[in-house]
Structures are given as C-alpha cells and as structure tokens.
C-alpha cells in the first residue's frame, strides 16, 4: 500500500469546510507577520477538523504552538499564502495530506536515544523482567523503529529476547513501513555506536548490521519477535495487556487533556507492577495518574504501576 493509499483509505466524507481569504506577509521563518491571531486560530481549528472528518487523523488536541509552526512551514513549502488555502489543497489532494501528516507527526528519532535511559532500563527494569516467563512490550509512537531495534538488541544481550514479544506502533503508516525494512542511514552508525556503548552495550555494535542498499541493514533476527502496525493513540483503543510500555517523545506534542487520555490508555493497558517509560521531557508529575506509579528512575522517566 502506498502512503497516498493510506491517507485516502482513512477518509471520512462528511465534511467540506469552506475556505477563508486572508493574505499575510510571510517572515523568513514562514511565520506570518500580519495575521489576525483569532482568525488564525479559527482557520487552524477548521483545518484540523477537516483533516479529522475527511481523513480520520485527529490532531485537534495537539499542542497549538507546535502545530501552528509546522503548518506555516508547510504553507510556505507549498507556495501558498493562507491556512485556508492549505486546507483546500489537502482536502482535495491526498498527496498534500501525506506531506502534512509527515510534518505534523514529527518523526525525529535515534538508536539508543538518551543512552542513560537504556542504561537505567538494563539496571532497574531487566532484573524485574527476568522474573516473568513471557514479556509483552509496547512501543507507542515508535516512528521509524530505531528505538525498537535498540530494545531488541538490549533484550538479546540480556538473554530475554526469546521470551519477549514487542508490539511497535505509530500513527503514521509511512514510518511504520520504514521500520519494517530494518534499514537505517549508514552515516548515523558512528553516533549510534557511541550511544550503544554509553547505553551499556556488551558486544560490538557493528555485529548487528551489514552495509546494504546504501544503508545499514539490521539483522532480521532482531525482528523475529516484533510486530509493527499502525495505531493511533488518540482514536484507537488498547489491544493487549503489557508488562512494559514505552512512549517516548510523543506526549510532548499533545495538550494536557490529550496527555491525560493517553495516560488513561496506558494505565489500563499495563499489568499490575507494569513499567511505563516516557521521554526525557515528559513526566507523570501533576498528572492524575501520578500516585498510581512509583519512580524506578525519575531522571530517566521510568515508572512502575503500583495501584
Ligand atoms: C518524535 S517521534 C518519537 C519517536 C521515538 N519514540 C523516540 O523517542 O525516538 C514521535 C512519534 O509519535 C508519533 N505520533 C504522533 N501522534 C501520534 C498518535 N496520535 N498516535 C501514535 N503515534 C503518534 C509520530 O508519528 C512520531 O513517529
């Protein structure tokens, strides 16, 4: 399935929101210099509503400032002037929606990203996982899969991979497809090797890949126990009970209400004493689930569900 098909297949046809005409002067950073903030917000809300009702992707509760910045960048890249013009184009052209989806879903990632997290995972979580006969892990918002392969390597080295099943999901089918290929940019292997060593890796990182197809092709054995699929944290439900959920660098893009909803989803999806791992800028503090977890490593955002 092509990414255009993916965008088209998610269509819902109830709505055709109208367009508004306003022509701001653009600054160099693509932000409008003269745009009525209320009109801007209205147009952005209409655009997000249009995306949701026409394509089924719900960005309505994503952090406004980030959405606004990315939309203006896309407007400039498309050679357009207004948010409404972008709305019109993306509603009529799935290929434009595909580009907007890539802009809005922000897929930046790395192998062994934040190495101290993986080190803490080895030290604090692995001993707990050893007590389970079978381990179910969910990477929610896995992007192109770098963190999934990192976890597979870690579990392999700790002798736990055979008893693990990893579910790796993302809203964006394009990145999920890339994750399945197991091919990553060759020019990032130096950085990943350094991360791997800092993360407590016990072998030579180059054992895990071969240079192929202009990239680094990771060993297919790392995918043996991995299931990649599309899943939307905003609109889809849980699909299993997990011992570990990793959702790193995803919730920062959501507003408080949506963060709370997703925390509810994770809480329901974790077994008693299950582990929740968040990104370095994300926290359970001040969330309604704060008291349901204890910190295993606060600095590395590793929590355990205790009630
Ligand atoms: C910045 S990346 C983080 C990737 C990886 N977790 C990491 O920490 O390196 C954020 C990912 O969240 C995904 N995402 C955004 N909204 C989502 C949603 N509603 N449901 C599932 N994934 C979502 C994006 O497509 C993107 O791949």
Can you give a write-up of this model?
The chain has 307 residues and is α/β, with parallel strands linked by helices. Helices cover 40% and strands 17% of the residues. The chain contains 10 helices and 10 strands. It has helices spanning 3-9, 37-55, 64-77, 83-92, 94-105, 115-129, 146-157, 173-181, 189-198, 256-269; strands at residues 135-140, 164-170, 183-185, 209-212, 215-218, 226-230, 242-247, 270-278, 293-297, 302-305. The strands form 2 sheets. A 7-stranded mixed β-sheet has the order 6-2-1-7-8-10-9. A 3-stranded antiparallel β-sheet has the order 3-5-4. Helix 1 packs across helix 5 (94-105), helix 3 (64-77) packs across helix 5 and helix 4 packs across helix 5 (94-105). The longest helix is centred in the N-terminal third of the chain and has 19 residues, at 37-55. Mean pLDDT is 89; it is low at 1-29. S-adenosylmethionine binds at residues 105-109, 113, 141-143, 147, 170-172, 175, 232-234, 248-250, 279.
């Amino acid at each position: 399935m092509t990414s255009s098909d993916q965008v088209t297949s998610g269509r819902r046809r109830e709505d055709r929101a109208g367009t508004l005409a306003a022509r701001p002067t653009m600054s160099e950073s693509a932000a409008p210099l003269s745009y009525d903030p209320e009109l801007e917000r209205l147009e952005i809300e209409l655009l997000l509503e249009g995306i949701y009702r026409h394509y089924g992707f719900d960005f309505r509760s994503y952090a406004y400032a980030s959405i606004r910045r990315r939309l203006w960048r896309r407007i400039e890249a498309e050679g357009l002037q207004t948010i409404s013009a972008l709305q019109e184009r993306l509603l009529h052209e799935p290929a434009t929606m595909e580009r907007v989806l890539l802009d809005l879903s922000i897929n930046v990632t790395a192998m062994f990203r934040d190495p101290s997290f993986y080190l803490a995972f080895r030290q604090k979580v692995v001993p707990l996982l050893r007590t389970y006969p079978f381990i179910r892990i969910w990477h929610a918002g896995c992007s192109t899969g770098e963190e999934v392969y990192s976890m597979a390597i870690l579990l392999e080295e700790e002798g736990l991979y055979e008893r693990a099943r990893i579910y790796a999901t993302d809203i964006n089918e394009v990145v999920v497809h890339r994750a399945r290929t197991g091919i990553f940019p060759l020019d990032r292997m130096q950085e990943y090797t350094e991360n791997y060593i800092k993360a407590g890796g016990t072998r030579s990182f180059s054992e895990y890949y071969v240079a192929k197809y202009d990239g680094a092709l990771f060993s297919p054995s790392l995918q043996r126990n991995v299931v990649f699929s599309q899943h939307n944290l905003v609109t889809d439900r849980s699909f299993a009970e997990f011992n570990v959920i990793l959702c790193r660098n995803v919730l920062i893009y959501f507003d408080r209400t949506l963060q709370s909803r997703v925390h509810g989803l994770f809480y329901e999806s974790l077994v008693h004493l299950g582990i929740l791992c968040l990104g370095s800028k994300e926290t359970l503090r001040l969330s309604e689930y704060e008291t349901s977890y204890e910190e295993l490593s606060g600095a590395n955002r590793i929590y355990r569900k205790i009630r």
